[in-house]
Amino acid sequence: MSLDYEGIQRIPENWLDTCYNDPVVMSWIGDVDFPESLHEMLIFVQKSTQNDRMIANNNSLPQSFKHWWCHVRTERKRRQSRGETVEDNVPPLYPTIQRWKNIIHQYHNIINDQDITDTDVITVFITWMGQLYTDIVLFDNEHGRKTIPRLDGEIISLGGERTTRRETMKHIKKQGVKIFEERGFIEGKQYWNLLCTKYTI
């Protein structure tokens, strides 16, 4: 996968520091109408601040600062409510990509759980689409060949005939869009949609 973007800043080391030192964040939380839920927070920050910036560290997909900040705040609150220790560098929890990291680890034994990065998930998606595309071109049937990914409920496993190859392909494409949307990575979503046209059949 090739995503080259200029102007991406590093992820802040301490979320709490942004609450006291970042003028934009201070304007958000200083508003008496600042909401508590993730969905409402994202709507609020999008409306209140027109500009955004992209942030990333090594081996991570870029994310918008607004999405990072709101997701980290939500994850910190979740951990606090469970009585857990909340460290300064709590990562954001993006549900869709985290779910696929778990699925890839549990059902495909491709890489160790701790080694699965955001980019790995997208790379696996692209690999699956390539396999499906080739299989559709070569075989005019829906037999469950054991090396070909198939949608099985909410997961993708190898082999099986519960769904068609095109249904599996469609699901992968939608999940990719959702991953980029969850992190506010507009350019990534555009890249993904363009990439998916290569696998239209």
- The radius of gyration is 19 Å
What is the number of strand segments? 4
Question: Which spans have pLDDT < 50 for at least 5 consecutive residues?
Answer: none
Secondary-structure class: mainly alpha
Element string (H = helix, E = strand): HHHEEHHHEEHH
Strand composition percent: 5-15%
Labels describing this entry:
two-stranded antiparallel ribbon; 4 strands; 2 domains; 201 residues; mainly alpha; elongated
How would you sum up this structure, described in words?
By secondary structure, the protein is mainly α. It folds into two domains: 15-81, no CATH class; 95-199, no CATH class. Helices cover 53% and strands 6% of the residues. The strands form two sheets. It has a two-stranded antiparallel ribbon with strand order 1-2. 25% of the residues are buried.
